[in-house]
Design goal:
There is one protein chain. It contains ten helices and ten strands. The protein is an alpha/beta fold and 241 residues long. Helix 3 (97-103) packs parallel to helix 6 (141-153). The radius of gyration is 17 Å and the shape is globular. It comes from Planomonospora venezuelensis. GO terms for molecular function: ATP binding; ATP hydrolysis activity; branched-chain amino acid transmembrane transporter activity. Residues 7-239 form the ABC transporter domain. Belongs to the ABC transporter superfamily.
């Protein structure tokens, strides 16, 4: 396992009951990088993020900045600075926008710091400031995704896991979300692992990428190299360069 990797995964196996989905996944992500996880439907991308956030049982080794994370609970991983925005957003619809955001800081202490982070998150997502007292269920799909990411940022995560952030959103909204993710990465040095159906867009913001197929990593490299490889694009990513 790479000694200088911020996130290091080795021999990771995971699944649901008797169904194995991940088969010995090895990957590394550098500190402060954006890493794209790509691959066809059913490849195990969502399962990988669930494994990294403690939502499912795993076998293998996962380390964040040298600390072992495998077999820890989701709340324990949140205390280690791991924030997961699941596919479908996971927003608490009956609660207000502000209540949802404050839930993101549930493992933190200090009202002053949490209040300051509300301002910080609203600076990234100005529309949320105008919606703080609205129930989350009244937001548009794009606003709900902004809320889900904003709630994760309230944790002040060291590792941010994003699962299909563009799902169901208009292209302009998706581009704005990825612009904000890149800004968070650059300004706060947050390490980001993103599973994304829009491979071209994901590779445009990532420094590196891993391609999953049938629960195994079949290709790893710089995002620039993977994006420029026409054979790779046709075989794994569903588009031509």
């Amino acid at each position: 396992m790479s000694g200088d990797a911020f996130l290091a995964v080795e021999g990771l196996h995971a699944g649901y009951g008797d169904a194995r989905v991940l088969h010995g996944v090895d990957l590394t992500v550098g500190r402060g990088e954006i890493c794209a996880i790509l691959g066809p439907n059913g490849a195990g991308k969502t399962t990988l993020l669930r494994a990294l956030s403690g939502m499912i049982r795993v076998r293998g080794d996962v380390r964040l900045d040298g600390t072992g994370l495998a077999r820890r609970s989701p709340d324990a991983l949140a205390r280690q600075g791991v924030a997961h925005v699941p596919e479908g957003r996971g927003t608490f619809m009956p609660l207000t926008v502000e209540e949802n955001l404050r839930l993101g800081a549930f493992v933190r202490r200090g009202r002053g710091a949490v209040g300051a982070d509300l301002d910080r998150v609203c600076a990234y997502f100005p529309v949320l400031r105008t919606r703080l007292k609205q129930v989350a269920g009244s937001l548009s799909g794009g606003e709900q995704q902004m809320l889900a990411i904003g709630r994760a940022l309230m944790l002040r995560p060291r590792l941010l896991l994003l699962d299909e952030p563009s799902l169901g959103l208009a292209p302009l909204v998706t581009e704005e979300l990825f612009r904000i993710v890149r800004a968070v990465n650059e300004e706060e040095r947050t390490t980001v692992v993103v599973v994304e159906q829009n491979a071209h867009l994901a590779l445009g913001v990532a420094q590196q990428a891993h391609v999953l197929e049938s629960g195994r990593i079949v290709l790893s490299g710089s995002a620039e190299r993977i994006r420029a490889d026409e054979q790779v694009a046709r075989s794994y990513l569903g588009y031509r360069v």
